[in-house]
Amino acid sequence: MLRAWRGEASGGLPWRRVTATGAWSCSPTRLGDAVGAPTPTGGVEAYALGALADVAVEAGLDEAGLAITELETIASRHGMRELGATAATLRARRGEPGALDTASLMASELDNPVVHERVTAAGARS
To answer: How many CB atoms lie within 10 A of CB 102?
Structure first.
């Protein structure tokens, strides 16, 4: 994350291949594999993954889609609706069809003005 903050986004994200599944991961596997309420540190890790995905989208990295998918998975497994809306917003920023509608629908169920602002900003970009 520090490299991304410095503007060295390429190669700065901690992507690694999980050999058992062949999937890409940029967050600790214990959060992604667990089902149910996240631990306090798991919630922090999920928000960190959201920040990494945001940096990857902003930098135009191909791996951004992988980070967003992992964020969606974690959000749905743990009932983190705000992060689900964030993931849909990130997909909208990438120009994926239908993502802005999904983000708007998910955000409408949340009482979080920051999420609403991000959805609005994603709509203005498209």
So the answer is: 18
